Amino acid sequence: MTPASYAYAVTRGLKPEQVAGVRGVDGTEVHLVAHRDLVAVVGAVPLEEYDADALKAKLERIEWLEAIARAHHGVVDAVGTHGATLPLRMATVYRSDERVAEVLRDGYDRFTAALDDLDGRVEWGVKLYVEPPPPEPAAPPSATGKDYLRRRRDARRSREDVWRRAAEFGHRVDAALAELAVDTRHHRPQNPQLSGARGENVLNAAYLVDAAGARDFAERARSADGAVPGIRVEVTGPWAPYSFAVPADPEAVR
Predict the structure, then answer these.
(1) Among the entry's GO cellular component annotations, what is one (predicted)?
(2) Which 8-state DSSP code applies to residue 29?
(3) C-alpha distances in angstroms, 165 versus 128, 154, 171, 228?
(4) Is residue 220, in this structure, part of any structural domain at all?
(5) N or C, which terminus of the chain has less Cβ within 10 Å?
(6) 87 pairs with which residues across the strands?
(7) Same domain as 126, residue 104
(8) Enclosing domain of residue 200
């Protein structure tokens, strides 16, 4: 097997003893690659199992995807306890530690600016769901065709009203939370069949928040849950700022 370097995150001033015993994907212990004050947290993986073709096949296996996501986030969370951390995209793999050092050197200004922006800040996630409407009751045996059409029309109007209220409420929640955030990212709504969440996702946003104001942000976000019947608000965090990280180097082998 040819060794390659799986990169988890970029930070500054991290010492080897601060990540001693931290393990990532495949249970491999992580190590550090440095350039000036920048430090990349990496782990050794077999290149043959993480090249583009191998990853394409693996990413279709939900169990593997969940396992690598847990391992990746676990390393990032461990690193994040020691200072500003720039998470890299999951399955960012380079051919060697030397290549990782080159990426740090070539992107030094970009990484440094991003870490400055993220220093002392965390990410919160907020999702808004519309609860599925109750099923229509069966029409009575005596119902006419006109009755059926009226019931269908009323049901459609009811659904449209729920979606309208959800959209308006989502805009209000987003605007209120943006007041307490440094930056905001709006992600594509999640497919409930993939996420397993109940209801239809109509807002999927991430907010970059100063750590000092995280408590106020969380309280405001959670106060929105239950404010409108049929609409549920889910708040998660604080997380490492994945949504606000710079993109991984395009030369990574994935």
Answers:
(1) gas vesicle
(2) B
(3) 12, 16, 10, 8
(4) yes
(5) N
(6) 9
(7) no
(8) 122-239
Reading the block at residue 156, the tokens are 């459609």
Structure tokens that stand for 196 in this block:
């397993």
Predicted local distance difference test score (pLDDT) of residue 129:
94
The reply to whether 155 and 215 lie within a common domain is yes
From the list 89, 88, 87, 86, the residue with the least C-alpha distance to 116 is: 86
The Cα angle at residue 199 between residues 198 and 202, in degrees rounded to 5: 130
Distances (CA, A) of 173 to 128, 178, 188, 232, 242: 9, 8, 17, 12, 22
Q: Are residues 149 and 61 in the same domain?
A: no
Q: Are residues 114 and 11 in the same domain?
A: yes
What sign does the CA torsion over 215, 18, 2, 98 have? Answer: positive
- pLDDT (tens digit per residue) in 220-254: 999 999 898 889 999 999 999 999 986 655 445 44
What is the total count of domains within the chain? 2
Residue that has been written with the tokens 């249970």 in this structure: 27
Q: Quick one: pLDDT at residue 159?
A: 66
Q: Looking at the structure, do residues 13 and 79 belong to the same domain, yes or no?
A: yes
Judge contact between 25 and 93, C-beta under 8 A: no
* Residue 91 within a domain: yes
